[in-house]
Amino acid sequence: MAEAFTLCARDGFPLAAQVSGPDVSNTVSDSGSPALLLLPGQANSHHWWDRVRPGYAAAHRTVTFDYRGTGGSRDDSGAPGDWTTGLFAQDAVDVLDHLGIRSAAVFGTSMGGRVAQMLAAHHPERVWALVLGCTSPGGEHALERKAETRRWLARGTREEQQAKLHELFYTPDWPGTPAQSTLLGDPTMSPREQVGHRRASDRHDAWDALPSITAPALVLHGTEDAMVPTENAALITDRIPDARMRLFPGGRHGFFEELEDQVTPEVLGFLADVVPSGS
Prior knowledge:
The protein contains 9 helices and 8 strands. The longest helix is centred in the N-terminal third of the chain and has 15 residues, at 85-99. The protein has one domain (3-274): Rossmann fold. The model is unreliable at 24-31 (pLDDT under 50). It is an alpha/beta fold. It has an 8-stranded mixed beta sheet, with helices on both faces.
């Protein structure tokens, strides 16, 4: 069970955050298990990680927080501001500051991967390892989902849209139902908050920033991802100087959950290989 708390971002916005895993020192230079920050996808709270979090929390002090407009991160206005992936990255820094964590490993999936790119590029001292899953660099160089897929997601009732998302996230072998998934959007979000998240993700462009990332990086993707086409993994890997890529055959957008028995060991093995000396 994660310990929950609330802090204020530097602009005063309340952020709900959660910590689980072993008690460790707050710096990467002291003994103990290094911190791991998990960043969820667009229009999702920390619950995005519910099913796979225990696998990471067994080895790392695992930190999450709810993006603005999700979960417990709401202000009194209820209206989205000028939300960007860069702002969400700054919120992540504020969470790490609150916990006294100087540097963390960061694993971001989908829009969380976009936020992680901004965090690693613009706050390099805060990221000692970077894992990016089912994400893209954004901007004109990214390969976007097909127009047919966008139209498909825009039509129908919420129940129909959930069913469509479920098909994009999971293969037919996955035994769960849309109601059982924690990846298909935060149901507490208002339409305006959802638009705020969509704009933040759509405006993301880290193409020019990616070569400045100094942390060792692991880029993961499923080969059957129609939400964020797999080709984006190679684009990101080629742009980050110290990056390696691993593709998971048959995986869709939720591959990190459906293929947890493959993905989690891959991530933990990578982090063990690159952990800073003295951690």
